[in-house]
Amino acid sequence: MPSGMSRANVGDSKSHKKPYPLNYIQRPGDSPGSALSVLRWHLYTIFLFTASDFKTIVIPKTVFGTFNALSGSVLSTDSHFSVPTVLARAPLVFLWAWINLLPFNINNQRHPEAVLEDSVNKAWRPMPSKRISADAAFRVMLLMYSAAFGVSWCLEATGPFVVLLALGCVYNNLGGADASCVVRNLLNAGLYLGFATGATIVAYGANTLSKAAWLWLGIIGLAVFSTVHMQDMPDQEGDRARGRNSVPLVIGDAAARWTIAVTMTGCSFFLPVFWRLGAKGSVMTVAIGAVVVVRVLAKRTVDDDEITWKIWNLWMLSVYLLPFIKSLSGV
Predict the structure, then answer these.
(1) Hey, CA dihedral for 268, 272, 278, 280, is it positive or negative?
(2) Residue 271 or residue 81, greater confidence
(3) How far is CA 17 from CA 51, 132, 280, in A?
(4) 61 contacts 41 by C-beta, under 8 angstroms
(5) Is the pTM of this model over 0.90?
(6) Rounded Cα gap, residues 191 and 168, in angstroms
(7) Which of the residue ranges 19-28, 92-101, 183-192, 269-278 would you say has the lowest mean pLDDT?
(8) What is the rounded distance in angstroms from the CA atom of residue 101 to the CA atom of residue 198?
(9) How far, in Å, CA of 323 to CA of 330, rounded?
(10) Running DSSP on this structure, what letter comes out for residue 164?
(11) Which string of DSSP letters, residue by residue, matches 190-203?
């Protein structure tokens, strides 16, 4: 989950390439520069706070909300919807997800222990690369939380905003992500649900979620809770340096991999069955889940786990599409 996770793993000291250039432009104050250069510097700094989570939060939740809305009465009490209208709201879903993610990530990455963790293998982030000070980051965080509230108010998604704010405080300020691996996974599941619920409400244009939608969100939460520690597999060295009790550090690397493999297998078959989908409607989720299962057991280097984590996110995307597949005729 967002964010602040380092990339090192047990038994693998291989360093990682920096995915983002640190000196995208010259630092403000190093030379006179132009106003445009200074603006680009600060915008790039903002981008780096959320760069790791476009693939895990922003894009998947945009897909989730948009395709949920396109599912029509499968998840909504309002069966009247316009496909062009839903598609036109997709940028708003993207904006809502990103503007709520940004202050969470700043809060996550600004603390000294997070800077230490990120310095292991994510030195390109704004704090360890010294693109921004802790005090400045705190001020930007407050500004962005205000902006997130304003956007959420305008888009009728203040409920999910409040949930994300509360969970973010527990996760980042009260040590909820570090003390217990169970609490950590619960918080991650809650954060995923907060983003998913808000994205869906924004995509619909109002909170018209049906009982089936709320049940589906709960099931997704259970799936995330039982498998999301896939993100911790490549992060064990950084988590150990921080003193975080993630699943692989508590029960061991091998046992953690088997818990992922078993629960991924169960979820990959059960979730399509929940929607009473046949083989055609189930094949994508089952196939991608199978790839994750094979890789998490057979591929155990840091780089391998990073790739498997990305495939897990692809699996989640396939899960998000199941209600839409259900809404299609002949499936």
Answers:
(1) negative
(2) 271
(3) 15, 22, 39
(4) no
(5) no
(6) 8
(7) 19-28
(8) 12
(9) 14
(10) H
(11) HHHHHHHHHHHHHH
What average pLDDT does the chain have? 86
Q: Which pLDDT does position 38 carry in this prediction?
A: 84
What b/e string do you get for 108-136 counting C-beta neighbours within 10 Å, with b at 16 or more? bbbbeebbebbbbbbbbbbbbbebbeeee
Q: How many CB atoms lie within 10 A of CB 310?
A: 13
User: In 3-state terms, what secondary structure has residue 299?
Assistant: coil
How far is the C-alpha of 74 from the C-alpha of 133, rounded, in Å? 47
pLDDT in tens, 284-302: 999 999 999 999 999 999 9
Q: Which two tokens stand for residue 171?
A: 């996760």
pLDDT in tens, 166-187: 999 998 888 887 778 899 999 9
Q: Contact at 8 Å (CB) between 78 and 120? A: no
| 3-class SS of residue 173 | coil
Alpha-carbon distance 105 to 54, whole Å? 12
Q: How far apart are CA 323 and CA 321, in angstroms?
A: 6
- Taking a C-beta distance cutoff of 8 angstroms, is the pair 61, 171 a contact? no
- CA dist 183 and 142 (Å) reads 26
Alpha-carbon distance of 196 to 63, in angstroms, equals: 10
Cα 137 versus chain centre, distance = 21
User: What is the number of H-type helices and E-type strands within the chain?
Assistant: 15, 0
